[in-house]
Request: fold
Amino acid sequence: MISLVAVVGPTAIGKSSLALELGRTFGGEIINADSRQVYRHMDIGTAKPTLDDMAVVPHHLINVVNPDEVFSLALYQHKAREAIDDIQRREKLPILVGGSGLYVWALLEGWRIPPVPPDHVIRRELEARALSQGTGVLYEELKQLDPDAAEQIDPRNTRRVIRAIEVSRKGRPFSRLQGKEPFVNSLIIGLTTDRIDLYRQIDARVDSMMEKGLLAEVEGLVKMGYGFNLPSMSGLGYKQIGMFFQGEIDLTTAIQKIKSNTHRFVRHQNNWFRLHDERIHWFDIRQEIDQAVRDLIERFSAKQHAHH
Reply:
């Protein structure tokens, strides 16, 4: 079994800076578990680590695909495992960092993801129905087929709803993903804080993204030919700036929407990383936590070495 440290928790709480600190202290390398930092050219809106950060501690699974390429959970799991094996071979500590619960748990719990090939006939039929009757109707069908999957999917995310129905109709519930085979021994560190404080941090981060040039970044993506209908472009920040560029809302409203949608996203992340989950060692960032986190990792490493 491979040993790995994971840093999880809501967006904007400081996972990346803690991970960098740990990477420096323990000679570790970072594996990204944020579903949006895999896209090239999307740096500011995804709060990607800077080139300086990446020069200090090697990062994996950042900038792996172009914004118009498909990036699936199965592909993530495959690439992350490759990265972990590679880091392990060089006797470095793999540090998994990110707030995408789906990516984190699929990797840590070793979900066996069914390689259900896309069925274009079903897909076209469902897309046509979504257009004529609305996604809501499809979401209701998914609730019948696979209530667990429906639970994990935003009812407005037509693409995910269609894919889940497609997989479920093939007789494999999307949510169960054919069992689990963990291949890593992980120490999971969770960061938490007061919700109001976190919302303030999120709002400050959004303002800072605007100052760093989020508008220009989105404009550049459009010039490169990436349209607002792409899944990557419907991510937080990009979607709202897109609405502004398309004249649907003014800039002040767009910024406000990014903030409030990010607050909502945090509530969704809390369903993935629960405070009463025994597997997660929670630390409140309002306290001095660095030393306690380092001690925990040292104990974990010592125990892993004793087992070898």
Q: What stands out?
A: The radius of gyration is 20 Å. The chain has 13 helices and six strands. Residues 12 and 205 are 7 Å apart (CA to CA). The chain has a mean pLDDT of 91.
